[in-house]
């Protein structure tokens, strides 16, 4: 890999600052807390740290509603704390990527305050105002439009009412965002994770979406998820922000609904847009017809088919990001594995299946420990705006509290946001955490795993070492084997004479699958014979 494309052989660790490590006992994680845990991340040997938003924000959506892009929210610390953290990260040979949230701002951002002050304000056109709303629904339930009494118009917010969408058609908006990004690059950051960046271009005229049965809304998604100018904007951004700079940066675009064909265009290096995208196909396979809140049984054959399609689809052009979970998705081991009897083995099997694929793996904080979903006892324990809005609208639509709570317990975002489990009593904070600790911290915690052979942590450390040492892990092409097998997930990676074979048993019934070559790694002690419950084996042939 040329240095220019260092991100192809990198492993990224996502930190959710609110829940990672609290240094001042206020119950909310912060920058000094993250800094105090850099030994842990260096020991795991990750290459990049992605920080979810730490900017000034009313925290309506936990920081994804920004009121000042060039200031650190005091709850997380100061710009000095940030500079010191960045210097420390760099001195350890790691890199740091910021979260770029520019499809929308907070309604408390001065840009919106000005825009809302009067119809004549020069920044009126920085946002999307209309006399008449269309029928688009917000991602967080309800209409995507909010009436504004003072200026008697509606403004667009695809997410919460406190997250008005920016109007990217306006060149001044774009130039202000590019200047802000350059400001952070000048400060030394190594790239950006770009929030819902495929939503920034809306279809002209903002046409109504196809009506959604049983709701007053229409499906606006096709009209803003791949707008006519999205490629133009990303190329302009790339040129204006990264053009002419000697350094090379990691850019990953979060793109709900993106297809393989679109991703080939977004990540083709020749087009100068982004290095990789977060696609959502595999994290939508257990969504029912009406969306994420309706359960659908996950089928391994479908999961394999989806992953193989993306592996092959971006095999020649472009590049994949690889992830099982993040701060918006439930915990991987609870969703795709078995967080009961086989928690450790299934967490390790999931880790191997993801990290041995072609692309850049993202580890979400706590995934390397096999952290699980938390069984939120009641709506009073829920803090995520998406879940709270869903609960309200579900009850208004006649859903029972039990069934709405069951959906939130299964797939709500708070499952990913409980405090990092550093020790048997938690170790996240000396104060009362902003969100309840998962009581299984007594058994699932870093102190019980770091340096302990056979632990999920040590297994993840070995997977990351494999990517750093074995070129085939980075560059090998991908071939799925036994695609229709209901419990076997197996594939091959080939690169300049090396063949890696990965085979995992996604069940508990013994599964025989003989593999040729030298046994490289597994989550059980080495043994021939059938694969045991949630066993994964990696073999190498040269
Ligand atoms: O697609 C997004 C966008 O998420 C990004 O954008 C959202 C708005 O900024 C923010 O809430 C998320 O935290 C951020 O990652 C999610 O809202 C997703 O659809 C949903 O949460 C899954 O249920």
Automatic annotation (TrEMBL):
Keywords: Glycosidase, Hydrolase. GO terms for biological process: oligosaccharide catabolic process. Residues 14-417 form the Glycosyl hydrolase family 13 catalytic domain. SUPFAM superfamilies: (Trans)glycosidases, Glycosyl hydrolase domain. Gene3D superfamilies: Glycosidases, Golgi alpha-mannosidase II, Oligo-1,6-glucosidase, Domain 2. InterPro entries: GH (IPR017853), GH13_cat_dom (IPR006047), Glyco_hydro_b (IPR013780), O16G_dom_2 (IPR045857). The keyword Glycoprotein does not apply. One of its GO terms (molecular function) is alpha-amylase activity. Belongs to the glycosyl hydrolase 13 family. NCBIfam families: PRK10933.1. This is Glucohydrolase. It comes from Marisediminicola antarctica.
